[in-house]
Specification:
Elements (H helix, E strand, L loop, with lengths): L1 H20 L45 H7 L11 E5 L5 E3 L12 E7 L3 E8 L6 E8 L5 E10 L5 E10 L2 E11 L5 E2 L29
Antiparallel strand pairs: 1-2, 1-3, 3-4, 4-5, 5-6, 6-7, 7-8, 8-9
């Protein structure tokens, strides 16, 4: 697992910091290594492990759903790590499939995982090069391939002492409802958008999974 743990280090550390500072409305699971386990036995590690946000809910009360919960909402019966197709986001902006531990690099920006059954579920997670921000985006795709739900959480404890949470639902490719809120850390209190909110990264949005830059790597 040595190769996989290289890319895991920065992301797992960032996740642990963010989770520690933001309470959840539901049971919080410990942050996990994106390619293995964190805070547990090394023998439990696997290359399809997952970093959990540890935060649940919606833009209305300061957090996105747990990965497994949202996958279930998407119609995914088995959201185990082994069922996911995983790709790595390189520092040059390109994407590469994770086929073996050696594929992971210590300076990888993040990763994306896709579960496919009749519907599809996408989980993307990234940490900044400095290790002080974390960005999680999750999307549900209906059996016809259209995006039906998106949840996004950008956590910046050092940048603004806050996080931005966005939730959008769609019907036939059109936005039905969109909520976005900002929350203080660690109080979880809702707040106005910080003055530098315009500089926050955009919320990724793929109206269809095949429009993702890594789509060709996550086919069944």
């Amino acid at each position: 697992m040595a190769g996989v743990l290289k890319v895991a280090g920065l992301l797992a550390l960032t996740a642990a910091i963010c989770v520690a500072q933001v309470p959840s409305h539901k049971t919080t699971q410990p942050a996990a290594n994106p390619h293995g386990s964190m805070g547990g036995s090394a023998s439990g590690a696997n290359p399809h492990g997952g970093m959990q946000s540890g935060m649940a809910g919606s833009a209305g009360h300061g957090g996105i759903s747990h990965r497994a919960e949202m996958a279930k909402e998407c119609g995914i019966g088995d959201a185990s790590f082994e069922k996911a197709i995983m790709v790595l986001h390189r520092t040059d902006g390109t994407w590469s499939p994770l086929k073996a531990d050696a594929d992971a690099k210590k300076d990888d920006k993040g990763f994306a995982r896709v579960w496919r059954e009749k519907s599809a579920f996408l989980d993307m997670q990234e940490a900044s090069a400095t290790g002080d921000t974390m960005h999680i985006t999750r999307m549900c795709f209906a059996p016809d391939g259209n995006l039906v739900k998106l949840q996004d959480q950008y956590v910046a404890p050092n940048q603004c002492g806050c996080m931005r949470v966005t939730e959008t639902t769609y019907n036939a490719g059109k936005v039905v409802k969109r909520e976005q809120g900002y929350f203080k850390m660690p109080s979880h209190e809702k707040m106005a958008a910080p003055k530098d909110a315009a500089k926050f990264p955009a919320v990724p949005e793929y109206k269809r999974l095949e429009r993702a830059p890594f789509a060709s790597m996550v086919k069944k």
